[in-house]
């Protein structure tokens, strides 16, 4: 499941966690999300990539679809 959204450290993180708990694999599009601060944004992207699913760029997504 591809995830885009507004608050990386709130909504995006919660959606990624819920996706994983429902036996789906979350993929967050790095340049299609934003955090409430740059520090939290980067920290939560790192955590999502390490623990929950993958974090990729929109370019990587498009290249993978071709």
Please give a quick description of this structure.
This protein has 66 residues and is of the alpha/beta class. The chain has helices at 8-21, 38-52, 58-65, and strands at residues 2-3, 27-29, 54-56. The chain is globular, with a radius of gyration of 11 Å.
Strand order within the widest beta sheet: 1-2-3
**Cα distance spanning the termini:** 17 Å
Mean pLDDT: 96
- N-to-C SSE series? EHEHEH
Roughly how many Å is the radius of gyration?
11 Å
- Proportion of residues in β-strands: 5-15%
Number of strands: 3
Shape field:
globular
Which secondary-structure class do the elements indicate? alpha/beta
Question: How would you sum up the major sheet?
Answer: 3 strands, parallel
Count of alpha/pi helices: 3
Percentage of residues in helical conformation: 55-70%
Unreliable segments (pLDDT under 50, ≥5 consecutive)? none
Task: Spell out the blueprint of helices and strands.
Layout: E1 2-3, H1 8-21, E2 27-29, H2 38-52, E3 54-56, H3 58-65
Helix pairs in contact: 1-2
């Amino acid at each position: 499941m591809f995830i885009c959204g507004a608050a990386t450290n709130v909504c995006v993180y919660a959606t990624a966690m819920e996706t994983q708990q429902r036996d789906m694999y979350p993929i967050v599009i790095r340049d299609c999300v934003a955090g409430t601060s740059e520090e939290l944004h980067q920290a939560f992207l790192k955590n999502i990539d390490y623990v929950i699913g993958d974090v990729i760029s929109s370019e990587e997504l498009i290249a993978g679809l071709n």
